[in-house]
C-alpha cells in the first residue's frame, strides 16, 4: 500500500513512470489544466466506487488484509487476460 496511491505491487509501482509518459494528459499545457483534468477524472472514478470500501470494512475482520487480497486477486486476473 502506498499512502497516496493506494494498493500497488512492485510491478505496478515501476509501471507508473511509463504510464505517466504514455498518458496524453501529461503533455497538456498549462500544467494547471492538466491537474484539473486529472482531478475531474479521479473524482469521477471515485464517485462510482464510493460504497465499496464501506462494504468491505463491514464484511471483514481486518480491512487492510481483505483489501490487499482483493487487489492481488484482481491484479492476477488482469495479468492473465
Radius of gyration: 15 Å
Question: How many beta-strand runs?
Answer: 0
What's the tally of helices? 4
Query: Which regions have little confidence, pLDDT < 50, spanning 5+ residues?
Result: none
Question: What can you see in these coordinates?
Answer:
This protein has one domain. It is globular and about 45 Å long. With 81 residues, the protein is mostly helical. The chain has helices spanning 10-22, 31-48, 52-59, 63-80.
List keywords for this structure.
single chain, 81 residues, mainly alpha
How would the blueprint of this fold be written?
Elements (H helix, E strand, L loop, with lengths): L9 H13 L8 H18 L3 H8 L3 H18 L1
Please provide a brief summary of the model.
By secondary structure, the protein is an all-alpha fold. Helix content is 70%, strand content 0%. It has one domain.
Amino acid at each position: 500500500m502506498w499512502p497516496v496511491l493506494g494498493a500497488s505491487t512492485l510491478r505496478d509501482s515501476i509501471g507508473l513512470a511509463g504510464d505517466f509518459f504514455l498518458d496524453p494528459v501529461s503533455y497538456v499545457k498549462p500544467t494547471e489544466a492538466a491537474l484539473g483534468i486529472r482531478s475531474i477524472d479521479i473524482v469521477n472514478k471515485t464517485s462510482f466506487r464510493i460504497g465499496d470500501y464501506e462494504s468491505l470494512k463491514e464484511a471483514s475482520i481486518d480491512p487492510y488484509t481483505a483489501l490487499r487480497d482483493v487487489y492481488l486477486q484482481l491484479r492476477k486476473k488482469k495479468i492473465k487476460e
